[in-house]
Amino acid sequence: MRVVDVAEDGPLLQVLYEDLLVPSFPPDELQTLQWVRDGLADGGVVVGAVLDDAGAPEAVAVGEWDAPSRVLLLSYLTVRPRIRSRGLGGLLMGVVTGAWRERFRPLLTLAEVEHPLAHEAGGERGDPAARLRFYARHGARALDIPYFQPVLRPGAERVHGMLLLVLTRAGGTGGERPDTVDPGPVRAFLEDRLLSDEEHDADGPVLRMRGALARPGGIGLLPLDDVRALPLSAPDGDGDARP
């Protein structure tokens, strides 16, 4: 197995997208192949892959760099189902927190993942609870905000029941306590890259997310071992659905 940087559009990128990303993520959670291509071309997207000895792709990670907020988002990470739990995800996490961090020097490295109480395990998409345990082993903690994935493109829907994890943070981004994060970079990232494209920018879920960003003392960082203690976003009218 070897890890490679997918630096340009080509046959490998299309195979990674069609064979690994499409089966692993619901359509509303997945950006288009053209979005990945455009991002690679302008430097806003980075892709890493694990190839077997014959050169066939077995795992992929896709990151999104937001220069204004200096936030790096791990948008997607998946391993071919037949070889999950064999360390390939860990290889890619090493790229995210190593080479990508060295390249971009982010204030924060974040990851979007499904909340296990809102998304069921099944098929090639894997188990959200197992995925959360994977990130916990790599030191991730959840931001205490009721996060949803905004609409990615026309015809898609919001995805509620998502978590925004902190994978790394630079010095000076902490709040008053070690278990908090300065809301500034998170707010800038969400407003610039996500919430700015929402049609209903003052509805309940958006206001609840913005309210969490405005709490005094910074945004709380929560351990991942108790899923019932993690924030759970809900459609407008349902409030914060945390159990």
Describe the model.
By secondary structure, the protein is α+β, with helices and mostly antiparallel strands. It has one domain: Gcn5-related N-acetyltransferase (GNAT) (Aminopeptidase, 3-Layer(aba) Sandwich), CATH 3.40.630.30. The protein has helices at residues 11-24, 33-42, 88-104, 128-137, 183-194, 204-213; strands spanning 2-6, 45-51, 57-66, 71-79, 108-114, 141-143, 162-169, 180-181, 219-222. It has a 9-stranded mixed β-sheet, with helices on both faces. Helix 3 links the parallel strand 4 and strand 5. The relative contact order is 0.14.
- Envelope shape: globular
User: Judging by the overall fold, what is the CATH architecture?
Assistant: 3-Layer(aba) Sandwich
Would you identify the CATH H-level superfamily?
Answer: Gcn5-related N-acetyltransferase (GNAT)
First-residue to last-residue Cα separation: 42 Å
Main features:
globular; alpha+beta; 243 residues; nine-stranded mixed β-sheet; Aminopeptidase; 6 helices; single chain
Write the layout of secondary structure elements.
Blueprint: E1 2-6, H1 11-24, H2 33-42, E2 45-51, E3 57-66, E4 71-79, H3 88-104, E5 108-114, H4 128-137, E6 141-143, E7 162-169, E8 180-181, H5 183-194, H6 204-213, E9 219-222
Parallel strand pairs: 4-5
Antiparallel strand pairs: 1-2, 2-3, 3-4, 5-7, 6-7, 6-9, 8-9
Short description:
This protein is α+β, with helices and mostly antiparallel strands.
